[in-house]
Amino acid sequence: MITAGGRVVDQVMLWCALACFAAHLQLSETRMEEPDSKYKSMEAHTQSIEEQPEPPRETKLGNCFHMSRKDCPIDTKCRRIESDSVFCCDVDSFRLKEALAITMTQNTTNLHVLNATIDELVVSQSIFRRLTSMALTDGNIGKIVGQFPKIASIACLNISNNNLSSATLQPPDHRPFSNLFNLTVLDASRNNLTKFPVSLVQSNRKISVDLSGNDYLPCKDFLKVMETNNSSLVTFVHYDKTKCALDLRFNWFKDVLIMPIDHLRVQKELNISCRNIRPANSNCTCVPDRLELMDGVNHVAVQVDCSQRNLKEMPTNLPPNTAKLNVSYNNITSLQPVSDPSYEHVRHLMVDNNDIANIVELEGTKFIDNFMFFSITHNKLKTIHTYVLSNRLETMGPLLLISGNKIHCDCNTEKVIKPWLLENLKSIPDFKGLRCEDNMGAVVDLRESQVCHTPRDWTDYIYYIIGLEVLILVLLISKVSYDYWVFKTAGYLPWPANKMPRLPCDWLCE
Ligand SMILES: *[C@@H]1O[C@H](CO)[C@@H](O)[C@H](O)[C@H]1NC(C)=O
Ligand SMILES: *[C@@H]1O[C@H](CO)[C@@H](O)[C@H](O)[C@H]1NC(C)=O
Ligand SMILES: *[C@@H]1O[C@H](CO)[C@@H](O)[C@H](O)[C@H]1NC(C)=O
Ligand SMILES: *[C@@H]1O[C@H](CO)[C@@H](O)[C@H](O)[C@H]1NC(C)=O
Ligand SMILES: *[C@@H]1O[C@H](CO)[C@@H](O)[C@H](O)[C@H]1NC(C)=O
Ligand SMILES: *[C@@H]1O[C@H](CO)[C@@H](O)[C@H](O)[C@H]1NC(C)=O
Ligand SMILES: *[C@@H]1O[C@H](CO)[C@@H](O)[C@H](O)[C@H]1NC(C)=O
Ligand SMILES: *[C@@H]1O[C@H](CO)[C@@H](O)[C@H](O)[C@H]1NC(C)=O
Ligand SMILES: *[C@@H]1O[C@H](CO)[C@@H](O)[C@H](O)[C@H]1NC(C)=O
Ligand SMILES: *[C@@H]1O[C@H](CO)[C@@H](O)[C@H](O)[C@H]1NC(C)=O
Ligand SMILES: *[C@@H]1O[C@H](CO)[C@@H](O)[C@H](O)[C@H]1NC(C)=O
Ligand SMILES: *[C@@H]1O[C@H](CO)[C@@H](O)[C@H](O)[C@H]1NC(C)=O
């Protein structure tokens, strides 16, 4: 039982812990969302020409003609740079057409249009036929229609930063880029593409592709390209800044997960270690979650989903750096395997809808010292061993979910668990869902009179017994005194003393 003094001590300790926590708050920000430069860079060596309006310039195939804004023509919309290049700025489709008609010659092979506002870019126009480098960047292109002509010699295509979406890039009926057999550099970065330009990268040709800044491209397309690395020879420019969308409908949050494509390489290795989870055939799925600082080193934190697998025990031998584990909807009865070394980095544990009876086996595990989220709803907990959790819950941040359990309620529950729930209600948002068995209602609604009457009854009863015993003693003494008095005066023993057998002690008395 908790005494008033004990509670005061608890409160003091809690405030101390809070004060310490506040002091170290800045230190605890260790999570990192994005890799910086740790990953191997696979940048292509595209020798773009920039910030040099006049100097001589090689026009090798594959080179991209690119000028910067400060070189924009001042009076006109377009200007010729050397004999083979044209540079335009800030045009709409009408002005572009007009200006190109004037500046483009038979000899023009390079074109850069900066900030074009075009509703429909018709790529089948004959003026584009002779180009080897075509760039329409930093503008707004509503739609790309038509198809590059079959003999197009474009080696470099830059459509970076045009607010393009896939719907406007690849109309369902045809693919605008399918004829670009000489393309070696494609810069489609900083758009909003959601479909991978598969036709471009599935040819037997070396190609550099920049798809950074398009966060909704499906990971499976990148995966395919990376797997067939040999034949397609695709190099991803800005590899470490290129991200893809993983559709997690069947795994985790019923949502897409945007992740660096380097995680796909990680995923491959992960798939192997995922198969080694015991028990064998547990058929769990493993996905990289995010980059996380663990033991001072950046690792890709791993999510493991073993839910609804008919497991009878907690899985062990989890992949390295497993940070989240979902084993909901199984038939697990014990948390003992959480002490397995592979649980070392687990911070989120979901064991909802199982048959776990207690959490005492978590005592002393690394998990219980470090967890951020522990959900053990709808299990068969009979009690809450509050001391196992209390240390962790004294810090801010960790969440515990325990609703849907029906624990055994007695006076101890009312005196210990109920105040514990109320003290930690910020960490246990579903505290009202912890109920008592036998339809006794929520634990937080327990009243002393409901469960704690037995002790008072017992005390009352003790007094009755003592009273009764005193009464019997008094009667006994009076009877003995009476017997003695009768024996002394009348010389005989009254009933029942006269019927009692002689005992050795009687002998002594005489
Ligand atoms: C882009 O061009 C349009 C005209 O077509 C102009 O209004 C706009 O200011 C330009 N944007 C930038 C960033 O210069
Ligand atoms: C195209 O280039 C050739 C030789 O390189 C040159 O003689 C001709 O004048 C150029 N034509 C134009 C329109 O610049
Ligand atoms: C494609 O490039 C090759 C050299 O790599 C060249 O011989 C060929 O003419 C080019 N094709 C076109 C259509 O420009
Ligand atoms: C394409 O255009 C963008 C935006 O102007 C530029 O940053 C990038 O370097 C260009 N890419 C190539 C390959 O020239
Ligand atoms: C990008 O395109 C969408 C339509 O696809 C348009 O609503 C939006 O305003 C554009 N954003 C910019 C910055 O032009
Ligand atoms: C890019 O596409 C996504 C998903 O289609 C959309 O939510 C987002 O608003 C788009 N961004 C821009 C700038 O158009
Ligand atoms: C392609 O394979 C080479 C070695 O064969 C490797 O160095 C490179 O990283 C691979 N590229 C990708 C994108 O996987
Ligand atoms: C990659 O190329 C090597 C030899 O160059 C070959 O042995 C291997 O099977 C190829 N892999 C794929 C996936 O094509
Ligand atoms: C865990 O798995 C169950 C069953 O697949 C799912 O309903 C639940 O949302 C998952 N929990 C989390 C936190 O993803
Ligand atoms: C990993 O396994 C999942 C299925 O469990 C599969 O969808 C995915 O493509 C695999 N990833 C790699 C890189 O092998
Ligand atoms: C593993 O799970 C997938 C779906 O998650 C299922 O299609 C497959 O049959 C399962 N395999 C085994 C051996 O249970
Ligand atoms: C596991 O539990 C479910 C209900 O949660 C039950 O239907 C199923 O029969 C149990 N499986 C085993 C093997 O006990």
Automatic annotation (TrEMBL):
Region spans: Disordered: 36-60
Domain of life, per lineage: Eukaryota
Protein's UniProt keywords contain Signal: yes
Protein keywords: Leucine-rich repeat, Repeat, Signal
Range of residues in the leader sequence: 1-30
Protein name per the record: Protein halfway isoform X1
Keyword set includes Signal: yes
